[in-house]
């Protein structure tokens, strides 16, 4: 492979998010006012591509949208953030997914989605002429137990790795995985893809549900047994768990005042894959990812607080993190 055109290509989900705050429990009973309403783009891969661009990297987004206003908004937002959106597939047969996210007093969030059909990860959106020009391919996200084309995407990842492209993915669960009547088949399909991933980046809940283990250390080892080249488990405000040289380490997070947590995991993945594209060590990637995620929750919206590289590094230094490492950029 020659010189890379992209630092990271992000393939997968794109949605339009509507974040609302107010008496949302009564919305189906009466008219009223909302304290706040914000329309933004979302979806794991889209968020990650935008954050990477704001960090100063060259990113591209591969995905599918409907021929509708929501799809146009997604393309416009990618272009506004200097993400290469030329590989997007526009499908007249589907609607673009829209999510309504009520933000509660506890700052936690739940998603109410109209799944338009554009987010099934399939070969059509995995354009290898883009992927093979990247340092890193990140899939956002694997949906265990879904109808995504696990085997086909695994084949794309295998070919990318032969071209020295690093492969990574995060996950999202839309329901119980291990209790499904199709569990054995779903597990086999998931493992076919994990075996072609250099890095798998699930949350704590996702890792425990996928593996059936009782704690994160056992879950991480099981993910490696299932085929992942390396697994990093996101622990929310606690940081993340890594495993290197036969030792576990919890790479600690950063104390911040939380506005909301929408997109924190996507900012983590963007920070982590940014590090991969720069050849950093596993722990460096984890420290930087934690910092990107921490900054992201200080403002409402998935990517509103996304900062450039030097801002993230300054935040790390102010919190006494990162000394003794070479942070080439």
TrEMBL record:
SUPFAM superfamilies: Ribokinase-like (SSF53613). Keywords: Kinase, Transferase. The keyword S-adenosyl-L-methionine does not apply. Pfam families: PfkB. The keyword Zinc does not apply. This is Sugar/nucleoside kinase (Ribokinase family). InterPro entries: Carboh/pur_kinase_PfkB_CS (IPR002173), PfkB_dom (IPR011611), Ribo/fructo_kinase (IPR002139), Ribokinase-like (IPR029056). Residues 8-304 form the Carbohydrate kinase PfkB domain. GO terms for biological process: phosphate-containing compound metabolic process. Belongs to the carbohydrate kinase PfkB family. One of its GO terms (molecular function) is kinase activity.
């Amino acid at each position: 492979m020659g010189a890379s055109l992209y630092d990271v290509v992000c393939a997968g989900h794109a949605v339009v998010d509507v974040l609302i705050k107010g008496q949302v429990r009564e919305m189906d009973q009466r008219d009223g006012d909302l304290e706040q309403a914000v329309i933004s783009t979302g979806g794991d891969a889209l968020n990650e591509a935008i954050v990477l661009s704001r960090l100063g990297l060259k990113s591209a987004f591969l995905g599918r949208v409907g021929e509708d206003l929501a799809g146009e908004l997604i393309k416009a937002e990618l272009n506004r953030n200097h993400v290469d959106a030329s590989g997007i597939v526009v499908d007249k047969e589907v609607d673009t997914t829209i999510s309504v996210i009520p933000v509660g007093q506890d700052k936690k969030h739940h998603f109410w989605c109209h799944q338009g059909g554009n987010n099934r990860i399939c070969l059509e959106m995995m354009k290898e002429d883009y992927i093979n020009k990247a340092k890193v391919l990140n899939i956002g996200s694997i949906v265990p137990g879904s109808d995504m084309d696990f085997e086909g995407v695994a084949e794309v990842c295998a070919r990318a790795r032969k071209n020295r492209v690093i492969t990574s993915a995060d996950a999202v669960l839309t329901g119980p995985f291990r209790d499904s009547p199709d569990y054995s088949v779903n597990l086999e399909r998931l493992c076919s893809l994990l075996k072609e991933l250099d890095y798998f980046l699930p949350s704590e809940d996702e890792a425990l549900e996928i593996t059936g283990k009782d704690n994160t250390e056992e879950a991480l080892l099981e993910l490696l047994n299932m085929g992942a080249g390396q697994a990093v488990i996101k622990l929310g405000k606690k940081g993340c768990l890594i495993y290197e040289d036969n030792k576990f380490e919890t790479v600690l997070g950063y104390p911040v005042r939380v506005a909301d947590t929408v997109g924190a995991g996507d900012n983590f993945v963007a920070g982590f894959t940014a590090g991969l594209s720069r050849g950093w060590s596993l722990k460096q990637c984890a420290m930087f990812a934690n910092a990107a995620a921490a900054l992201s929750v200080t403002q409402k919206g998935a990517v509103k607080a996304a900062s450039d590289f030097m801002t993230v590094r300054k935040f790390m230094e102010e919190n006494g993190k990162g000394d003794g490492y070479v942070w080439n950029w």
